Each structure stands twice: as C-alpha cells, then as structure tokens.
Input
Amino acid sequence: MNLTQIQEALRSANIDGWLFFDHHRRDSLAYRILGIPSDAMVSRRWYYFIPAQGEPCRLVHKIESATLDAVPGSKLTYSSWTDQQQKLAQILNGAGTIAMQYSPRCAVPYVSMVDAGTIELVAATGVSIVTSADLVQQFDSLWSAEQFQMHVEAGKLVDQARRETFDFVAEKIRAGEPLNEFQVQQFICMRFAQSGLIADHGPIVAVNANASDPHYEPSETKNSPIKPGDVLLIDCWAKLNKPSAVYYDITWTGYCGDVIPDEVKNIFDIVRDARKAASQLVINRVASGQELAGFEVDDAAREIINGKGFGEYFVHRTGHSIGEEVHGTGANMDNLESHDERRIVPGSCFSIEPGIYLPHFGIRSEVNVFVDSVRALVTGEEQEKMVAI
Output
C-alpha cells in the first residue's frame, strides 16, 4: 500500500477519506490494495479509515487485534456492537464525504463489495458515501512497466499457440481424422503448459451454434465434432507463470473450408469493423489528450453492429478490464450490461471483443488495448479476415 499516493488521490478527488470494511474476506479488493497478509485472521468485522490528511485508523475486534497490524495507523479495539458503532463514529468524526467499495444501483458490480446494512451503519454516523470505483481502478488495476512486458511476452506465446491450433485442426480435417472441440481445447492447454503459461480455466473452442454461446466451454462429455463446413471460434486467455503476471485474452474465428460462405464472411466483416472502430476511438482520444469513458467505447462498437441491423445479436458488453485476473477491476467497455462512466486511465488494459451470435453460428473478434500516458495500442495480432482452415 502506498499511503502517500492514496491520500493524494483522495485530495485530488475532494474526498475526505476512504473507509475499508470486511468480514470473512468478502472484499478481496481491500486485501490486495492494503496488502493485508493472506494468513490474517478475519472472522470478525474490521474497519480501516484512510483520511485525506493525517494518520489512518484501524478498528478491530479485541480477539483479533492483530488483524490489521500490517498496515500503518493508530488502533482502536471493540468487543460489543455498541462499542463498535461508537468507535466507528469516532474515527469518522469530521469527515464529510468518504469512499467505500459501493456502487450506486450496483452499476459497477466488481466494486460493489460492502453490504447494504454496513452502508446504512456508516451513513448513520453522518458521512456521505461515494463509490470507490475510480480509486480501486487507480490502486488495483493499473500495470507496472514490468507487467506490461509480461503481457506482451504472454501475447506472443498465446498468438503462437493460436496459429498452431488452427494448423492442427486443418491437418486433422485434411487427413479425414475425427476431431472434436474438447480435443482442440486440450491441444491448446498442452501448448500453454509447454510455453510456461497458466490460465484460471478454459479455453473456449466452439463450432457453429455453440459459438453463439459466449461462455460455452467443451468438456470430455459435452462437445461437438469439428468437420468441413463448420464455423470455429477459439477464445483463449493466459498469463506467464510468474508473480504479478497479467493476462492476454483473444478470440479468433475460422471456417473449415477453402471458400467461406458469404453470410459468414459478412458477419465477420461487421464484427471486425466494430472492433476496429472501438479500438481506433481509444487510440485517437488518447493521442489527442481527451478523456474517454468505458461506455463510449461500447457505443462505438455497438453503433457499427446496430447500423447493420444485428444489434439484437450483440448481447454482451464490448470489453472488460484485464489484470492479474482475466476480468480485472478497471473500467469496462460497457453501456449495455451497465453504464460504466469510469475514465480509461494510463496504465490500464482492457479487451475489445464485439460479437454477433446468430442461432446457427456466432462470431466474436477480440484484441487487448493498453493505454499509457501518451498513446493507446493494440498489444497483439489483429484478425483482419476469417481463417480458412
């Protein structure tokens, strides 16, 4: 935890303090941002208040008085519920507006960690509570230079595995050998392991109607064969097997045959153009020094797909934040599932992955975009046309 930077951010945002709260490790953000050890005992409620000025204060239960010893500040202990409430009001005394892991109307669910009852309890002390979403983005989702380099390295390995996977499918089809989605998924997992890559689950390998389920994953018992005339979607994400490594996450599509049907090509072209419109908006805004919010990127992609008459088949947000977890805590490119007004800030990375999901096949095209202080860039290879498998 960098106390100086947090307090500077609070003052810049005209927020009087940041109140962290947890019970039984419900708020993983708090532990990462504050650097609380994973072995800390947390069976009782604790509070940690960082004021914009001055010394932080810890409020912990008497039987777990060492829970927050890893973070700086004074310490108060409580035992009874009345003592807890009295001392909570004490540490917040003088504060007007404070941030918590709360999101109005749950607009940003990744940040909405504090339960409604605790919000009521804190508000009863007389403070006004605002969302910590922008603070969380600043202190939990921004990459270091080393993390960016690990992302680029992982990207090269993932892109190589993706090329090899399409070649593997082509070889099996040309030889007339039976092949299914699960076998292809396992081929990718094997190549990831050989390359020193890890992933939390996946990847997605889906043909035809299965590709119209954005979260479809094959298994040994649930899979479809891959054969000539099929549309094949591959969505794979991985990171280096190193501390603090961050993910690289892409989706490519191909057609099992030499001549891609006009309908398939048309849908791919629309999705590709939507992806490029969204990424170009980010690149242009950052280059011009203009602010940009996540919902605006979603709008740019959705405008292309809506304009071609396929808006009802684009059923998810345009992109998500990427970090040490494949779905990070920064701004999402979203004006569908939520209205994400968070600014895209230097040091952040996110996916841009529009899709059209028809009843008989689906197409998604995904790249990663990284933003620094002067530019935005697509960090890996971009698919410009369908892969003819």
Notes: The chain has two domains: 3-140, 145-388. The first helix runs from residue 3 to 12. The two ends are 49 Å apart (CA to CA). The first strand starts at residue 17 and ends at 22.
